[in-house]
Batch of 4 targets.
Target 1
Amino acid sequence: MFKNKLAPSILNADFSCLKEVLLLLERCKVDLVHLDVMDGNFVPNITFGPKIVNTIRKNISLPLSVHLMIEKPERYIEVFSKALFTRDSIIVHVETCPHLDKTLQMIIDSGLKTGVALNPATPLEMIKHVLDKLNVILIMTVNPGFGGQQFITTMIKKITQAREIVNKFGKNIDIQVDGGVNIKNIETVNKAGANILVVGSEIFEAENPENMIRDIQKKLQIL
C-alpha cells in the first residue's frame, strides 16, 4: 500500500514572502514541497534555478521534489544535487533526455531519489526500461509551463495504467500527478492510482491557504 502524500507546488506562491510560505508548509506538516524549475525553452516559462532551491533547502526541513522542466537536465544534476539532501528527489522529463538511463544514474550517484516525468502526449512505453532506477513516475495532467491550468481528464486512464505497471512488476515506485489537481478532483485522481498529489494554485490562490491544505489532507486521509 502506497502512502498518500500532499506535495504543494510553490510555483504560484508569493515569493515576496517566501519564508512565510515555507513556515506555513512546515506548520501544516505537508509530506514534501514541489519545486518547478523552468528554463523558457522546454516550457514557455522561466522560474528559478539552483540558488533559489538552495535557499529553500536551508529554510525548510521537509523533503523537496525538484522538477526539472529544462533542456539537457544532465548539465545541472551536479549543481542541484549539491543544494539537496538525500531524502530529496530530482525529476527529469523523458522528452528532454536522449540518454535517460545515464541521466537517472547521475541522480542516483549523487545520492538523491529519482523521478521521470511524462507530458500528457508521451506514452508510458518510454520508461519501461528504466523502472529499476525510479522512485517516482510523474504524470503531467496539464501541458507544463504555467500553474492554474485545467486538468486533462483523459489522463485518469494513464494514471491507472502507470499504477498497473508498477504493481505488475512489483516495483516500489510512487505515482505522482501534477497539473490541475484541486479539491474537487483530488479523490478521483487518488483512486485512479496516484499517491503523491501536487497541488499549487488551489492552495496559494485560496482565501485561506492553511485551511485549504487541511481540507486536502482530510480528502487524502492524511490527517
Target 2
Amino acid sequence: MAIGRIRAFISVDIEDPVVVSRIARIRDSFIATGAPMKPVEDKNFHVTIRFLGEIPVTLIDDIERVIAESKPRRTRLVLEGVGAFPSLSRPRVLWVGISKGSDELERIHSVIERGLRRLGFRAEREEFVAHVTFARLKGGRNIDRVVKLLNELSGVEVGEVELSSVRLKQSILTRSGPIYKTIREVVAT
C-alpha cells in the first residue's frame, strides 16, 4: 500500500443483532455443505454501495461530500432470500437479498456514482444489485450441495433493518480476514 492511500468502500452496515444472527445461521448452513469458502464475519455484514479500491486519503472529504449529496433517507430494508453471483448454477459469491428498500439503495448508489465520476473514478462495470454477501466460494467441491441449498432458501425471510446511515469504510486486509473501520458517516434523515 502506498503512503497516503487506503483501501475503501461505501456501505450501509447491518448491525441489528437479530438480523446478523439470522444471516450467520444461513452462512453456517452453507459452510456445512463442505464446499470450500471464505465466510464473512458477523461484524462485517453490510450492503456495499460502492467499492472504491485504493484511494488517496486526500479524497476522503470529497467522498464524504458525495455521500452527503445522496441525502440518504431513513428506510426500512427487508432482507429476504438468498442468491449468488454470477448465477445460481455457477455460484461464487453467496448473498442475502433485499426485497424492500432496495429502490432507496439504488437511488443512493446512482447519486454517489455520478459524484464519484466527477472526482475521476471510473464507472462501475457491474450493475448495482443491493445484497449482503455472507460467503465467497473458493472452489467447486460440493457445489451441487450449495446449489441445492440456494434453491431451498430462495425465499427465506431474514428480517428488517433500518437504513440509518451511509458510511465510508476503510478495509484493512489481514491474514485472519479484513478489518473494516468507519472513516466517515452520513446520517439518514
Target 3
Amino acid sequence: MTSSEPTTLTGGCLCGGVRYQIIGPRRDIINCHCENCRRTHGHIAAYTSVRKSDLDLTNEQTLQWYHDESPDTWRGFCNRCGASLFWDARDGRDKMSVAAGSLDDSGELQTIGHVFVSEAGQYYEISDGLPQFETGNDGVLEDDSSS
C-alpha cells in the first residue's frame, strides 16, 4: 500500500509561499472524515503519509503550524492563502501526513480507504466500495515497509 517508485513528488500551497518535495516512499491516500479535518479542509481530508526525513521543505516562508488539542496534533498551513498542507502527530512517529490535494502530481498514489466515517458529514455518502473504519484504521491501511 506504499508507492515506492523513486520519482520525486513536489507540491505546495496555492500562493507558492510553501513548497515541498517528497523524495522517498509514500503511503497511498486515506480519506479522513473526522470533524477536525472537515473543518480544516472544508470537506474531507485526503492524505498520503511520508517519513519526515523524506519531506524537504524547499520554501517555508508562509508555513505556520496550528496546535489541534484534540487529538494532540499539529496542522501545517499557509498563513497567506490558507491552504492546509500537513498533519503531524508529533508523538515520536517518524511520519507526517501530506494533503494529497497539495501535490503537483500524485504519481501512482491511489485512494485506499476511509477513516473516522462515524464523524462523516450528513451531506454526502461514501459509496466507492473502499474499506471504511468508524475511527482510525489501527494500522490496517499502513505499510510498515516505508517506516
Target 4
Amino acid sequence: MNKNIAAEIENDVCEESSPDYLKVSLAAAMTMDLVPGIFYRNACLHCINVLLTYDEGCKANCAYCGLQKTREGDYNDKSFIRVDWPVFKTDDVIESTLKKKDIADRICISMITHEKAKKDTFTILKRFVGELHCPVSILMAPTVLKHQDIDSFKECGANMVTVALDVATPELFDKYRGKGVNGPHRWEKYNDILEYSVSVFGKNRVGCHLVVGLGETEMEMVRRIQAVRDIGARSHLFSFYREKGSRLENHPQCPAGKYRRVQTARHIIDYDMGRVEDMIFDDEERIIDFGMPFKTVAEMIEKGVAFQTTGCPGKTEISACNRPFGDSSPKNIRSFPFALNANDVARIRKELLDYD
C-alpha cells in the first residue's frame, strides 16, 4: 500500500471526531466521574450535555461564542461557555451515564454547524435512545436542517428539541450571528425551524435559548419570549457571560436587575399566568409592572422557581438541564442550579428593584 495513503487512513482512524467521539461539558464530566471536581453548594447536574466534535470545528462565527471559527486556536482547545469540554469516546459516555441512573434524568445532543453534523446526530440519537435509560433532547443547528429532519428526529426517538435563537431581535441576530460577522445563520431560518418543531413535537416539547444582555431592551426580550410562547414553545434563559477570545470578550454582563425582571416575566408568560401586553414598561423599556397583583408576584418570588435555570425538564417540570454556573460565577449566581434558600430570595428581592 502507498505510504501516503496508509498515513491518511491512520490519521482518519485516530481522529477524535463524532459520531465515535463527543465533547462533554465539564459539569457533565464531573457528574459522570470522568474528571475530578466538586460543585459549589453541592449543585447536581441532571442532564448530561454532549457536543458534536470535528477537527475543523464549527463553521459558524457567532460573536459571543467560544467555538466561533475565527477565534484563535485549534477547535479541540477552545472553551465553550468559559469551560473546557473534554473529548470522550461515545461508548464511554453511554457507559458512564448508565452508572448515574439515579442522577441523570436526561441527555442532550448539541449539534454544531458542520456538514457532517446532521448524519452524525442521527447515529448518536439512535444509540442513546436504544441504550440509555433517560429521554434524549437535541439542541439543533437549524442552518443545516430541513423540515423532514425534524420529523426524523422524533421518529428516531428524540423526546424534545431546542433552537438556540439567542438574540431577541432580527437586527441583533444579523449583527452577531449573520452577515455582521460573516456567519451563515439567518433569523428567518431559525424561526422557521422553531415553529415547525412545535408542529411536530407538540406544545411545551420545544425550547428556545435566549441570552439576556446582547443589546436588547427588557421590552424587546419579553416580547420575544411572548412570541416564542405563542407558537407553543418555552424560553430557556441565559445571562450573557463573556467568553475570553470571542468578539464580545469586552462586552459587559447585563445588570442583575434586568435579568431578574426578565426571569420573572418569562416565568409568568411561559406558565400562562399573564402576557406581555399586560405589563408596563418605563421610558427606557424596563419592566415596572408585571401586570399581576403584587401579592401574586411576591408569592412567586418567594418560591424562587422563576430564578432557577430553565431548560428541558427531567422527572419534574424543574429543568433537568440545570447547567451549574453556566452564565455566572458561583459568587454572583444568575441562574440558580438548585432550589433557592432564604438568603438567595432576599438577594433576588433587592435585585428586582435595582434600575441603575
